Amino acid sequence: SFTFDKEAEALKQEGKSIGLDCGYKKLLVSSEGRVIGRELEQLYNKISKKKQGSKAFKRALIERNNKINEVINKEVDLSDIKQIVVEDLKHVKHKSKFRKQFNNKLQRWSYRKTIGKLERLCEENRVLFTKINPSYTSQQCSGCGTIDKANRKGELYQCSCGNVMDADYNASINILHRGAYSPSIQSEVRL
Q: In a 3-state reduction of DSSP, which class is residue 77?
């Protein structure tokens, strides 16, 4: 077997930065308002109904992984992007306090596969890939900066300042701001 080191190409200096919120119901929501991968929730439900370890279960997992690759390849265009900022959700499923039925569905969520695919895509396209601390990104107002747990009501974010928008879109804007404008908070992964 052969191994070799390839020098990394210089990262893009031109283009825009975007924040991406990776979620269960919507695979990705960008800070520009694009929603990518709504259809994956149906696959998670399909997987959760299969008997774990069965051939049908394994086929459904392969179908999910293929769908993630297909959606990201088709929907994520990095031609004018120089930086992507995402949340570093390492232990989101670990010791979660959701009801058993939702926990079963959450186990089929594929955050790692999604982020891994994005990371490889960024490396191929010389895009800076940045992971930030996810604390309060979905509870903070992207307009005024107020942090209040009560402002998020399911899919809707509604702040006392008058800011009303999709909760995941609000989070993606906060993710972008943390990654692009607060270098002391971010943890970069240089490719």
A: coil
pTM of the model: 0.81
- Taking alpha carbons only, the member of 127, 142, 41 closest to residue 82 is 127
- According to DSSP, residue 91 is labeled T
**pLDDT tens per residue, range 96-154:** 455 555 555 555 667 888 999 999 999 999 999 999 998 899 899 999 999 999 999 88
* Spatial separation of the C-alpha atoms in residues 95 and 105, rounded to whole Å: 14
d(CA 82, CA 45): 35
CA dist 63 and 9 (Å) reads 33
- Closest of 181, 160, 142 to residue 31, by C-alpha: 142
Non-local CB neighbours of 35 within 8 Å, separated by 6+ positions = 26, 28, 29, 168
Q: Give the tokens for residue 14.
A: 């031109």
By DSSP bridging, strand 35-36 and strand 81-87 are unpaired
